[in-house]
Design goal:
It holds the Pfam family Rv2466c-like. The chain has 211 residues and is an alpha+beta fold. It contains seven helices and four strands; from the N terminus they run E-H-E-H-H-H-H-H-E-E-H. It has a four-stranded mixed beta sheet, sandwiched between helices. Helix 3 packs antiparallel against helix 4.
């Protein structure tokens, strides 16, 4: 018997976003219970918000300045060491940023790089625009699938006709595990595959629950 072919699920993330982090942890659970393989890609909240930066609240403008560093390190790591390093690096960064609540500074980034088996000097790219062209291209690839009115994460899977089915989210907390993760995956694909379907939403009553 041959192993069942796994469905590729392309996942665009910005390591700064706590909600994308929750969704990414759910996707790791989905990999355990469905024949799915996540392929990680970088998108950028800083790039997304550039056109309307002056309209954002002052505290969010400051956050967008912080957002450049981690995502630039991620794209540099991908360019220099291949896309397969993005998953481990995202996990190392996200665990520190979100679960541990550490500062999004060079020290934290270096520790994440070392955990992911990557050179510490990649942290230098946090303040460099050397790979901004590649960062913007990766961001555009994901956001073009869903439009400018959403953020991170973006997930895309092959549809029955070969065309990609893409969507923002799902936004969920805490990250479902086991059969609950499978049910959410099956349901998300079901609604996302309906032509003309755009949105399900309700007001969030709790913040991200990291576990």
């Amino acid at each position: 018997m041959t192993e069942t072919a796994k469905t590729p699920a392309d996942f665009w993330f910005d390591p700064l976003c706590p909600w994308a982090w929750m969704t990414s942890r759910w996707m790791l659970e989905v990999e355990k219970v469905r024949p799915v393989e996540v392929r990680w890609h970088v998108m950028s909240l800083a790039v997304l918000n550039e056109p309307k930066l002056d309209e954002l609240p002052e505290h969010y403008q400051e956050l967008m300045k912080t957002a450049w560093g981690p995502v630039r390190v991620c794209i540099a790591a991908e360019q220099k060491h291949g896309s397969e390093v993005l998953g481990p690096l995202y996990t190392a960064l996200g665990t520190r940023f979100h679960n541990q609540g550490l500062e999004k500074n060079r020290e934290t980034i270096v520790a994440a790089l070392e955990e992911a088996g990557l050179p510490a000097e990649l942290a230098d790219y946090a303040d460099s625009d050397a790979y901004d062209t590649e960062l913007r291209a990766s961001h555009k690839e994901g956001i073009d699938l869903v439009g400018q009115d959403v953020g991170t994460p973006v997930i895309a899977v092959p549809g029955p006709d070969g065309e990609q089915i893409a969507f923002f989210g799902p936004v969920v907390t805490p990250a479902p595990k086991g059969e609950e993760a499978a049910k959410l995956w099956d349901g998300t694909l079901m609604v996302a595959s309906i032509p003309g379907f755009y949105e399900i939403k309700r007001t969030r009553t709790v913040g991200p629950i990291f576990d």
